[in-house]
Amino acid sequence: MISNCRACGSSHLEPVLSLGKTPLANRLLTADQLTEPEPTFPLELVFCADCTLVQITETVPPEELFSEYAYFSSYSDTMLEHAQNLVEHLVPTLQLTEDSLAVEIASNDGYLLQYYQQLGVPVLGIEPAQNIAAVAQERGIQTVADFFSLELATQLTEQGQSADVIHGHNVMAHVPELNGFVAGVHRILKPTGHAVFEVPYVKDLVDQVEFDTIYHEHLCYFSLTTLDRLFRSHGLTIVEASRVPIHGGSLRIVACRSEHCDQPGESVRTLLAEESAWGVDKLSFYLGLRNTVEGLRQDLLELLQDLKSEGMRIAAYGASAKGSTLLNYFGLGKEVLEYVVDRSPVKQGRYTPGTHLKIYEPEMLVADQPDYVLLLTWNFCDEILQQQVDYQDRGGKFIVPIPQVRIA
Fold this sequence. Notes:
single chain; 408 residues; alpha/beta; Rossmann fold; 2 domains; seven-stranded mixed beta sheet; six-stranded mixed beta sheet; 17 strands; SAM-dependent_MTases_sf; Methyltransf_Zn-bd_dom_put_sf; Ubiquinone biosynthesis O-methyltransferase
């Protein structure tokens, strides 16, 4: 458990929200593991009064979390479309060619780099999950199966693999040693290169009650103010910043080496001013999350209990990490939900952490036709509702829990 900020080292960490002790959100169980003791870890959210970084206090070793992983980005059509649109914008904008190199940290199964490759730009993925890195390699995406660090960046640079563009999508939240990570980005980036990062935006977490994005893999929750200070301390200047809707609200930044460009762009200055206005550096802004989460918990439990009392059968969609946080903190298990469905074959046949709900393929919803489905992967709501037209046409309904409980 940390006592100092992961970014600036300050000991001024103020409590924001406690979610108790929960299992690891992506540790899906086999049938044989159901009778074994299941490790749980504290899930405590705190705010750094000095650099504004919001973070959890527990650090589970990355090797335990990511060496084998159950999340494959390519099973989400939304993620693929998001990646393709970004790459097709960046290639002409940054004038990338067959002589360039596009690198992604936490490249998963090559879901993003494949689009660079299709446009003739050489690629290199860095992915610590051995099983996922192997899939990427099979798809022809050159991938280093390792954790990104300053040491690895130095090694790759010495091998002549410096990046014209480097991506990091939803990876910085997973990094226990932020300063070494950002120093590594500076090291591997060419003098005129660009770093493109996306992180879940802390203001959306608070405003949209996205407490379920808090789990042990997500160590940090970022504002632009935090990132601007962190990147500047390692010779990187954020030149562009924008809010994008993916994952319930994310922040996208573009950074360059400060010796090439040392002035933030207008979009950065504007968003920094907005953050100052809403109180990015004030503990009071974050403290309201506790009450809104409790209100949401009460609303959802009342609805589910009412439906069960009426004899309704309820399943869930999405064996996701955020789903694990919601189910475990709200105390939702077999007494309310019958099973979970998920599109990923890697998850099917396993059981959810803590709550031990069996995971089936999505076709189970039409075959079994439960009355309601709790949508745990609410961040892909539109995509899933479109995929489940048959279930809905037969009378099935979805319960969307975030940011407020509603029936779709």
